[in-house]
Amino acid sequence: MKTFVTVLGASIAFFLTIAMFGLTDWDRPPLAVQQSGFRGTAMDQIHTRAGAAETKAANVAPAPADPAEPGEELAGATYENVQVLKNVSVNEFNRLMVSMTEWVSPEQGCTYCHNTENMADDSLYQKKVARRMLQMTQHINESWKDNHVGGTGVTCFTCHRGQPVPAHVWFTDPGPNRPGGFTARNNGQNLAKASVGLASLPYDTLTEYLADKTIDNNAIRVNATTALPTTKGKPIQDAEKTYGLMIHMSEGLGVNCTFCHNTRAISNWSQSTPQRTTAWHGIRMVRDINGNYLEPLTSTFPTARLGVLGDVPKVNCTTCHNGQSKPLNGASMIEAYPELAKSTETASAADPVPADPAPADPAPTPAPQ
User: Fold this and answer.
1) What confidence tier does 145 reach under pLDDT thresholds 50, 70, 90?
2) 257 is in an annotated binding site
3) Is the link from the previous residue into 366 a cis peptide, with omega within 30 of 0?
4) Is 136 marked within a binding site?
5) Is 333 annotated as a binding residue?
6) Transmembrane region positions (predicted)?
């Protein structure tokens, strides 16, 4: 009887195996492979063609508005309470306002920021925030052109994508409420958070690495540059935080580690791709945006728009990139809107002014990550 059962079980397993291989489609999906490093180093970005097409379709830039008619009248002389775009012609000003409505509040319209009975009124907080965001956009396109955004630049649509609040903003994550005691301490780990790819890593690395504009430039770097230790080094907790940030950057750009690093020598700048330098500056650009433009707006936002700890919504890599190495498929955003390419007017004395409006860090040659 035992022999019969054994033979029967083996026969069933055999036929199930045949059925599994014969009836199931085991074909590998078509892949889209892009080499990002030297040949033979396996530095490739690999996606399914279907996934790449889906991401591309989800990141289509809108067509620019028709060019404005020539005109000499300036917005600052024609309209009341124009602070940022004073030196832009009336026609260019109106064209940009229409475009901003389509980029940010297509459903709400002009009334999202303006009291239409008195367009000069500043009673709506959205208008105050929008004014500061205009300055931020000009600052990014002017001060970060050479080191990060390049000639493509950014507009409001780069982050907003037709929504008043960008889909990918973040707040400081306080974690779950836990009772006191040694056993309750989890070192900010072991919670499934998308910010670290659902991994068992510290789930709030963004606050430390992307919100603090005064952070030490060596804070993220944990890889040694020598075969034997020459200093005390850093604890494993720092390495876990760094890895959590790297996961965020990889997922935000839809790439793997080899997009920036040669994984045989992670810390070696000479063996890294040019994208690593761009990313190095991108980290500092995000800190600049969060620290000099968003944090000062804490008192401007209503309580309902703040996080549970009272902090403002902030940006990270995903806010602009949305799963692509080049936001919006690399479309040139600033060419059709030159008024956003550089500062057109200094903010009023009542508005917060960045403490350090231009990036002060030199390019890494080599430099700490």
Assistant:
1) very high
2) yes
3) yes
4) no
5) no
6) none
Any binding-site annotation on 321? Answer: yes
260 labelled as ligand-binding? yes
CA distances from 298 to 119, 129, 146, 307 (A): 24, 10, 30, 10
According to the annotation, is 47 in a ligand binding site?
Answer: no
pLDDT at 62: 96
pLDDT for the residue numbered 355: 44
- The reply to whether 160 sits in an annotated binding site is yes
Is 133 flagged in the annotation as binding? yes
Q: State the average pLDDT for the chain.
A: 88
Total number of domains constituting the chain? 1
Each residue of 206-252: pLDDT tens digit?
Answer: 999 999 999 988 899 988 777 788 888 888 899 999 999 999 999 99
Distance CA 95, CA 80 (A): 17
CB-based contacts of 328, cutoff 8 Å, min separation 6: 59, 60, 61, 157, 158
What single letter denotes the amino acid at residue 316?
N
Range of the domain at 110: 32-172+186-340
> For residue 293, what is the DSSP state?
I
In 3D, which of 195, 359, 196, 170 has the Cα closest to residue 282? 359
Decide if 364 is inside a domain.
no
The token pair at 205 is 């690395």
Answer yes or no: are the C-beta atoms of 34 and 44 closer than 8 Å. yes
CA distance 367 to 348: 37
Question: What amino acid is encoded at 350 in this protein?
Answer: A
Is residue 246 annotated as involved in ligand binding? yes
Secondary structure percentages of the chain, helix, strand, coil, to 5: 45, 5, 55
* Entry pTM: 0.85
Domain-located, residue 178? no
Q: Is 119 annotated as a binding residue?
A: no
pLDDT-derived band at 182, boundaries 50, 70, 90: low
Residue 1 annotated in ligand binding? no
Q: Is residue 365 part of a domain?
A: no
The CATH number of the domain holding residue 124 is: 1.10.468.10
148 is in an annotated binding site: yes
Q: Is 113 annotated as a binding residue?
A: yes
Residue 248 annotated as lining a ligand binding site: no
Annotated ligand binding at 43? The verdict is: no
Domain-located, residue 283: yes
261: annotated binding-site residue?
yes
